[in-house]
Amino acid sequence: MLASAARLLLFCAWIGLLGAGLAACGPLAPPTQVRGNPIDPDQLAELVTGVSTRADAQSLLGSPTSKATFDDNTWIYIGQITKPIVASTLHVASQQVVVLSFDDKGVLRAIKTLNKRDALPVRVVDRITPSPGGNVSAWDQIISGIGMINPFGGMMGGMGMGGANTGSTVPGAGGMMGGGFGGMGMGGGMP
User: Fold this and answer.
1) 157 is a domain residue
2) Does residue 101 form part of some domain?
């Protein structure tokens, strides 16, 4: 009995591995994802420095992903192809950045193509950014909120408790105090 259970478990594990292997390389494999605007090399080759214009670049490549921060004459096309792998993390299969530089008349002056090899590593700092106000617990937030809640929904000022000279000056319509409820007032007014 124990031997047959072990064989069944081994068979299920083998079927699971076979299924996972087929899913990873067959039609069940997760599709690649295109992000941004990858540029086709053939279209890029149609642009000629010194001759092509901004209009030519836009008709061939589409709108740029971005323009340089302080220079509208530098157009940037960013494209990336990723593929999901284990635990929904993404593997960057290819990465491309095309930088087009134009002169002030809109004529193409330079084309620069960068890829994944040109990327610089970014070191992530693991310290915590301080925030103003210190550490406030949930209990502190609850206690500080007491007194901020108006059970009358903001009607207190309209019931004659808003102070002097807040009501209507029309005789009989609220007098010197109150004046909420659409001008009817609760202050008593002078005839």
Assistant:
1) no
2) yes
Per-residue pLDDT tens listing for the chain (191 residues)? 556 666 666 666 666 655 555 555 556 667 888 888 888 999 999 999 999 999 999 999 999 999 998 889 999 999 988 888 877 788 888 889 999 999 999 999 999 999 888 888 888 887 777 677 667 777 777 777 776 666 666 554 444 444 444 444 555 544 444 444 444 444 444 44
Instruction: Confirm if 179 and 185 have CB atoms less than 8 A apart.
Output: yes
How many Cβ atoms sit within 10 Å of the Cβ of residue 115?
11
In a domain, 135, yes or no: no
Domain that holds residue 87: 28-115
The pTM assigned to this predicted structure is 0.51
How many domains are there within the chain? 1
Residue 57 lies in a domain: yes
**Nearest C-alpha neighbor of 178 from the set 152, 189, 153, 154:** 189
